[in-house]
Write a structure and sequence with these properties.
Blueprint (H helix, E strand, L loop, with lengths): L15 H26 L4 E7 L8 H15 L4 E6 L10 H6 L5 E4 L23 H10 L2 H10 L3 E8 L6 E3 L13 E3 L2 H9 L3 E3 L6 H7 L4 E2 L4 H7 L7 E4 L8 E7 H6 L2 H35 L4 E4 L2 H21 L1 H23 L1 H12 L2
Helix pairs in contact: 2-10, 4-5, 6-11, 8-10, 11-12, 12-13
Length: 377
């Protein structure tokens, strides 16, 4: 028996006409959604100028800053373009801060202790006498309230700074005579910026601030008697061993010198949040990469200075270091009298040095000492 087929007429099954109508509407909606979302996803090209306090292609300092500028482009697939200017290519080295604060340029790369005449608290965010090592500084900046204080300080100048490199514990400097006691520092004309230079002044020396490109000629001519710069890798490149043979360590003035990428704050805050994060992340990368490079290259450079160039490696005596400590105490008293903010930053620094340093004293220092003793290093 053959069953009669039921007609689809009047049923709820979709007709072909309705199906295609629905599909077409859905397609139009999808295209519309795509066209509407595109402008929200697309980001505008960002162009910025970066002025630096370092000579072009100078190892570590200059190349690290140039590497940061390139990194910003790489991280954004070329959308963020930074035109880099070394010292004296757009402005003089020590004019870079004002160049960015004014908005003429958007970024600088330097050391914020160069700006201590604007506010003495700037010194704390590069390096200060008897201050933080590299790892201690990062602990303080990232988890000890240091970055927030740095932001508070720079806000008054319309800038903002981020750690973007470090040179580690620096050498005490190059001298044309032995430093047997604090008396040997009296009358000494020495290139030493920041609060460390002020400590030298308390001991009767004459601190002189010079950009890197001018140190060698002044040391050779006798315009200065001594200079600190960074460490073996950089100092070898500067050829200081041609003008002075006594190379002292360790430097009390810069135990972990943080290099800064400063930005014009109005420009920075106008960027998309994602672009702000790209800049901050690139700076953090530059910070660790630069420190790694110094640690990797200082040892071999020191060996060449001593064994190939006849440099006499000397260690400051305890008496000289005690004199440095006395001078530092005087400088810190004066810094705190400058302003409420200076006092606030100093108090936070002292607290951080005590609490963070307590662990360093128990971990890094004893381990390195025992490792070197056991292995005869």
């Amino acid at each position: 028996m053959i069953k009669e087929k039921k007609s689809l007429k009047g049923s709820k099954a979709p007709s072909r006409r309705k199906f295609f109508k629905t599909a077409a509407a859905t397609g139009v909606a999808a295209v519309a959604a795509t066209s509407l979302s595109a402008p929200a996803v697309a980001k505008e090209r960002v162009e910025a100028s970066m002025v630096a306090t370092w000579p072009r292609d100078f190892p570590g300092l200059g190349t690290g800053a140039q590497r940061l500028a390139k990194r910003l482009s790489d991280m954004s697939d070329g959308r963020i373009q930074v035109t880099y200017y070394a010292a004296n290519e757009r402005v003089k080295a020590f004019d870079s801060f004002d160049e960015v604060a004014s908005g003429n340029s958007q970024m600088y790369h330097g050391a914020d202790y160069y700006w201590v005449k604007k506010h003495p608290a700037f010194g704390y965010f590069t390096a200060v006498p008897f201050g933080f090592t590299y790892s201690e500084m990062n602990a303080w900046l990232n988890f000890g309230g240091g970055q927030e204080l740095w932001d508070e300080l720079t806000d008054d100048f319309g800038t903002q700074s981020f750690a973007a490199g470090n040179t580690g514990v620096q050498m005490g400097g190059w001298f044309n005579k032995k430093i047997r006691s604090a008396n040997d520092l009296k009358g000494l004309k020495m290139r030493m910026p920041g609060l460390g230079g002020q400590v030298l002044g308390k001991l009767g020396g004459s601190p002189i601030s010079l950009p890197g490109g001018q140190i060698y000629e002044n040391l050779v001519s006798g315009a200065i008697d001594a200079t600190e710069w960074v460490g073996p890798w950089n100092d070898e490149a500067m050829k200081f061993h041609e003008a002075a043979k006594y190379y002292y360590y360790p430097g009390m003035h810069e135990p972990g010198s943080t290099l800064a990428c400063g930005v014009n704050k109005s420009w920075f805050t106008s960027l998309a949040k994602s672009d702000q994060h790209i800049i901050k992340t690139a700076c953090a990368w530059a910070d660790t990469t630069t420190m790694s490079e110094y640690n990797a290259k200082n040892g071999a450079a020191l060996d060449r200075l001593v064994n190939e160039n006849g440099v006499k490696l000397m260690k400051f005596s305890d008496k000289v270091y005690d004199a440095f400590a006395g001078g530092a105490a005087e400088v810190y008293d004066e810094v705190q009298q400058h302003s409420a903010l200076a006092k606030k930053v100093h108090a936070a620094f002292v607290k951080g040095r005590k609490e963070i340093g307590a662990w360093t004293n128990l971990s890094d220092s004893p381990y390195i000492s025992q490792r070197n003793r056991a292995l005869g290093l």
